[in-house]
Write a structure and sequence with these properties.
With 278 residues, the chain is an alpha+beta fold. It has two domains: 81 residues, no CATH class; 182 residues, Jelly Rolls. It has three helices and twelve strands, in the order αββββββαββββββα. Helix 1 packs antiparallel against helix 3. The radius of gyration is 32 Å and the shape is globular. The chain starts with a helix and ends with a helix. Bound molecules: calcium ion (CA) (4 copies).
Length: 278
């Protein structure tokens, strides 16, 4: 009877053994694919390739650069034109039509700077500097970025509308000059003496680069002027650095080694069981 039990047990192990090895290999394969998927999702950011542009804003009020969605981000280069030196002169930036105005520079009444630029967030932008495009017609201004100067077109671009009439439209253009889309808002408060509670940020992020932006104010109002400030633009790569690829490759090799050791361990355990039973 005892010999019969041993014979049955040996037969069962002989059958269960290979099945267990297959299951173990299957589980190891699943773990490998799952880990690979997780690793790829971590290493490859969502913005790889020329992703759909992301528009930011309109957001109100913008009272200082701290209100910019780009504040605190890391860039390969970044420029903020606040016009406080009386010039539009940050690298690689040009404007189709504008005057830089201030009460001290031009004795202009058409000043509406970002609030903080005069040293105090006090609800007034009258004592800073801003950019003005006068009426008549429906004022618009195109701001163009020069990749010959910058090295590469900015991926992050923004501007602050500080005064004018409704409706306001922000449009961005890709590296070939095709429109990436528009934002529309009606922030104007009907006050034209430097109030800042209406000041509105418009921006765009595009991994393929932004060649220009256009801001139009007073659509449908032929007597509108437009005032802008804080043109801001920077480049941030969304493509993983070579070092990241190297780390990912090392991680994959390490995981492959772990999987191989586990498979060898499983095979060894089955062989040991068979030897014990035999
Ligand atoms: Ca102020
Ligand atoms: Ca300013
Ligand atoms: Ca304003
Ligand atoms: Ca106003």
């Amino acid at each position: 009877m005892r010999l019969l039990k041993i014979a049955i047990r040996q037969s069962a192990v002989a059958w269960i053994g290979p099945k267990t090895l297959v299951q173990e290999r299957f589980r190891a394969g699943c773990r490998w694919l799952l880990t690979l998927g997780m690793l790829v999702s971590v290493v490859m950011p969502a913005g790889v390739g020329y992703a759909t542009p992301t528009f930011l804003g309109p957001s109100t009020p913008y009272l200082s650069f701290a209100d910019s969605p780009f504040a605190g981000q890391s860039f390969s280069y970044f420029h903020l034109e606040d016009l406080e030196d009386g010039l539009l002169n940050t690298p690689g930036l040009s404007a189709s039509n504008h005057l830089v105005v201030s009460r001290t520079l031009t004795n202009s009444q058409n000043v509406d700077s970002v609030d903080a630029d005069d040293g105090s967030i006090d609800g007034s932008g009258l004592h800073g500097h801003s950019m003005w495009v006068p009426a008549p017609s429906e004022p618009n201004i195109t701001l163009t970025f020069d990749d010959g100067v910058l090295g590469t077109l900015p991926t992050h671009v923004g501007v602050v509308w500080t005064d004018g009439l409704n409706q306001v439209e922000f449009e961005a253009f890709d590296e070939l000059g095709f429109s990436l889309g528009t934002l529309n808002a009606s922030p104007a408060d009907g006050n034209f003496v430097g109030g800042t509670s209406e000041d509105t940020f418009f921006g765009v992020i595009h991994s393929g680069g932004v060649s220009s932006i256009k801001v139009t104010s007073g659509i449908g109002n032929v007597a509108s002027g437009i005032e802008l400030d804080h043109v801001q633009y920077g480049y941030a790569s969304t493509v993983p650095e070579p070092a990241t690829y190297a780390m990912a490759a090392l991680a994959l090799l390490g995981l492959g080694g772990v999987g191989l050791r586990r498979r060898r361990q499983s095979q060894s355990e089955v062989q040991q069981k068979n030897q014990l039973i035999a």
